[in-house]
Amino acid sequence: MSPSPTPGPVPERQSDEGSRRPRGHRKTSCAEPRGDDAQPPANPPVFPKTIDLCGAHVGYLLLYANKTPFSNDGMNGPTENSDDLYLQRVTQAVSEFGKGMKSASFYPAGHPTLLQAVTKIILLFEGIPLPGDGLSIDVTKNALLYRDVPLPAVGNKALSDLNRELYLRRAARIIFLPNLQPDEVIACLKIITRDVEQIQDAGGLERALLQEKVTRIWANRVDYDQLTELLKEEELEEVEPEELAADTMMFKDPLLADSPPEEVVTIETMLARIAKETDPSAYRGHIVEFSRFLLAERAERKIEYAMQAMTIFVRHIENPPGGSAEIAGLARLGIKEVVSEELIAHYIGLLKKRGTRGRQDIDTVLVALEDRSIGPLLQALAEEEDLLVRKTIVEIVTRIGRVAVPTILENLDDSRWYMVRNMISVLGNLGMPDLAPHVAATLSHPDLRVKKEAIKALSRIPHPSAVTALCELCFFPEETVALTATAALASKKEMEAVVALFRRTAAKRVLFPNYRLAHEAIDSLRTIGTDEAVTALEEILGLRAVWRTEKFRAMKFHALRSISKIKSERASEVFEKVRRSSDRTLRAEAERILQRHAM
What we know:
- The chain is mainly alpha-helical.
- The chain has 29 helices and 7 strands.
- It has helices spanning 58-61, 82-106, 112-126, 157-168, 182-192, 196-201, 205-211, 224-236, 242-252, 267-276, 280-296, 299-318, 325-338, 341-352, 359-369, 371-383, 387-400, 405-410, 417-430, 436-441, 448-459, 464-473, 479-488, 495-506, 515-528, 531-541, 550-565, 569-579, 584-598; strands at residues 135-139, 144-146, 149-150, 173-176, 217-219, 508-509, 512-513.
């Protein structure tokens, strides 16, 4: 038996011949037999990716033969209906286009935020993809249609807004052609957000788009003749390269060679320009440039520069350069532009430090941020233990005003009683009549502190439901709640309040009135001070009891003193009538009151 050959080096030409692809364009046939004698196809369709294993795994290639563009890799299971998926992509792209209206109306052209929104819109339309003859969306009064199928607008505010704006501007349909351009998308969005009168003056939405040379988005129909002319104009426009233009200028004007170099613009430069700018249009441009610089800064420097800008903006809000109201408005815009979640957290941290310098600036910034600062402020309010800080936060939220109301109403169901109490306090300070039912609903809260705060809030809200709720609470079983409601009625001059206060005074607990509540009701009647209130006080002087105790007489004397303090003709008549009364004690008290006034 001969020994096995000793392993030796493999010649280079044979080392990896079977596992390497032949070079060039030669095709290597695979001679391995298959069990079923079937020959593999010459060029099996392979997608979404190409597999070349020289036939070693040719059986796997058949898994890809029947794939659709929406199949998962290596799977042939049932896929989602392509029409539904296409409609979903159309809806998403058109919705994003609708969201872009708000950005286009708020930000100037070229702003990073606007460019980012437009880029997203174009990517979504390209992902549909757009057909060659364009994507046509029909506009009706209640819905946008794609091939007579309504785009689902339930819960989609952007889609509803776009439908409304297009319908008001008398657009029957809007058509998106392939190869959308950012500047044309921005121009189209800005045109849609114009006033209806401006669109009509321009000859309609279709003519307005043509005037702005928008070639990829059309209203009602695609004017191919006009489209051809616009495309020819684009091709004929020759833009001189910047470097060549600069060289040409240098060549034409030799004096430029000796001119000093241009100023290097930095973020500090932009801050200085904003601080001293008096022209509103230039001021807006400085804000845009500063935002770009700020985005490029490191995270640890962003807050520092943002706070410097905030200080300038606050100063311009309170004392705008040249008294320009437009610059004051742009300063508010600048605050919203520069703000970030980290900056808000930083300002709230400064707010919590008692005795911090520039507290007024911090308050002004947080107020100017409006809805951006509401959530963090309420969260801080829920966690803060310092009473003074909590009061400061409540004052800031109150200054923010109507914008804060939706978030406040959401927090009325909070499980923490002090959180609900603070929200009610803010609603009361706002004093908006439509908030009265929401405050009245909290009167059923199990915590008495919340109930009392709701009573105080209702006293500051001018609404009939507030008066009714307070009148009912004057007779609440818990005395402190009834006292709070009775005192709160002093701010209401309605006849309903006067009657409730008289009933509260005259109501007896067994044989005698509740003197504590009666005295509070008399004080409220004196504060109201109307003729009806004087009449109620006169009726109190005529009340009778089984025994005329000292407390009962003191209650009547208190009513008489209250009448003497009301400056009206009706009050003087009643007081003179008491001086001639048959009640000896009341006559004597009236004389003492006159003597004290004379002194």
